[in-house]
Each structure stands twice: as C-alpha cells, then as structure tokens.
Amino acid sequence: MKAHTMLLGRYIPGDSFVHTLDARVKLLSAFLFSLALFAINGALAFIVATIAVALGWHLSGVSWRILMKTFKLLGIFLFIFFMMQVVFVRTGEELVTIFSFPLYKEGVFGGLRVVWRTLLLFIAATLLTVTTLPLQLTSAFERLCMPLKKARVPVSELALVMSVAIRFLPTLAEELEKMVRAQTARGVVIRDQPLRRRVRTISFLLVPLMVRSLKRAEELAQAMEARGYVPGKHRTMWKKMKWTKRDTLTLLLSFVLIVVMISL
C-alpha cells in the first residue's frame, strides 16, 4: 500500500463540521463507539453503526475514494480474520460442504461479524485521525484522563506516546514504500511473485524497517531533548481548546447512538 493512501494517523486539513469539533468530543465518542461495537451482535445494530460511521465520514468532507484505497491491505487481514472463524468455529448448523470441509453457521456468521466490526473500527479510527491534529489528540487525551494524575498515573507521558505512535504509522508506510522501490530497482518485483514468495520477500524487509524505526525514534528523542522536554514537568498549550454548545449536542447524540446500538 502506497504511503499516500495510508490515512490512519495522517491529518487532512479542512474546515468541515467534524474538523471543527472539540478533540475531546471526537476522542470520547470514538472510544465509546468502539466499546459499543464489541457489545453488539445483531445485524440491525451493525446497520445502525454503519450508517453512523458513513454519516460521520460524509460530514468530514474527506473523499470516499481516498478511504477506499486504504482497504487493499486491510482486506488481506479481514480475509484472514474471516477464515480463522470459519476454520476454528465448528458449532451450529452445517451450511455447506466445500471439498469435504463443512462450513458451520456460527463460523460463517461469526466471521462476518468480526470482519464488519473490524472494518467499522478502522474507519472510525481513521476518521478521528484525519480530522484531528496529533497535538489536539494528545491534549484531549490528557484532559480526559486528568483525574488519573491523582493516582500518580503519568497521563502526559502516555498521551505523548499515543500521539507519536499515531503519527508514526504513515511514516512507517513511507519507509516501507521506499524499501519496496529499492527492491524493484534491483530487479525484485514483489507484485509479480507467487503469494508464498511474496510473503517471504516482505518478511525480509521487516528487519531494515525496524532498524529505520529505531533510528527515527532516536532522532525524535534527541530533538525533544534539544527543545527542553522534561518528562513530568507541567507544559502550557499555545492553542486552548474551547467547548461549545455544538460539542455538547454532538456528545449527547453520540450517547444516544450508543444506547440505541446496544439496545437493538
């Protein structure tokens, strides 16, 4: 998957309704929505969740075509998740037999639920990152977890780690794309190889990818030290977050949506 199609962790500037919401509303809504997805099993609840995610993405103003391009790599993992359910779940009514291998109702429908749930989680997480700056996510996480500081939980450090981890996702995709291009320049065309050999070739790229990631992390640590970052010290924010009536209404609608999903 090309780096420019890696949306998760990449911010896309805009002035849409979702972009202008308070980061705390988006983070809290995404968190509660994710919890609700693991609590539902009915098809009607999944349909409501899908409509909500589609509406949120439409209000973000980000092109659907860009989102569809990110499904290429995700589709491989979704297929693996589905096959694991089909192969290992051997309960329920037998639906069909393929090459002397019976497929059971619980395995097939359970696999579909896993795929549907994972896809919605991915889109919701992508919607959060493409409409919210990493710094805003860090501040929102720190504000929401502020009560944990009384229990001596390093909230600020955890928020920073979360922000850096999200931001590194597209960076790792760019590094992987550079290594694939280098292999292609040496005559190794990964796309033209059989599936088994393709997986083996990609696995060989994991070691240099890890080395480059550690190098990037070291450079980031040095840059933070040069700018006077000290863990545990209080830091002020240049841009203050403002909570408006629209944020309150959006959060209330999110709660209503989650209650409806769980009750279906």
From TrEMBL:
<feature type="transmembrane region" description="Helical">
    <location>
        <begin position="71"/>
        <end position="89"/>
    </location>
</feature>
<keyword id="KW-1003">Cell membrane</keyword>
<protein>
    <submittedName>
        <fullName>Energy-coupling factor transport system permease protein</fullName>
    </submittedName>
</protein>
<keyword id="KW-0812">Transmembrane</keyword>
<dbReference type="Pfam" id="PF02361">
    <property type="entry name" value="CbiQ"/>
</dbReference>
<dbReference type="InterPro" id="IPR003339">
    <property type="entry name" value="ABC/ECF_trnsptr_transmembrane"/>
</dbReference>
<feature type="transmembrane region" description="Helical">
    <location>
        <begin position="243"/>
        <end position="262"/>
    </location>
</feature>
<feature type="transmembrane region" description="Helical">
    <location>
        <begin position="31"/>
        <end position="59"/>
    </location>
</feature>
<keyword id="KW-0472">Membrane</keyword>
<dbReference type="InterPro" id="IPR051611">
    <property type="entry name" value="ECF_transporter_component"/>
</dbReference>
<keyword id="KW-1133">Transmembrane helix</keyword>
<feature type="transmembrane region" description="Helical">
    <location>
        <begin position="119"/>
        <end position="141"/>
    </location>
</feature>
<dbReference type="GO" id="GO:0005886">
    <property type="term" value="C:plasma membrane"/>
</dbReference>
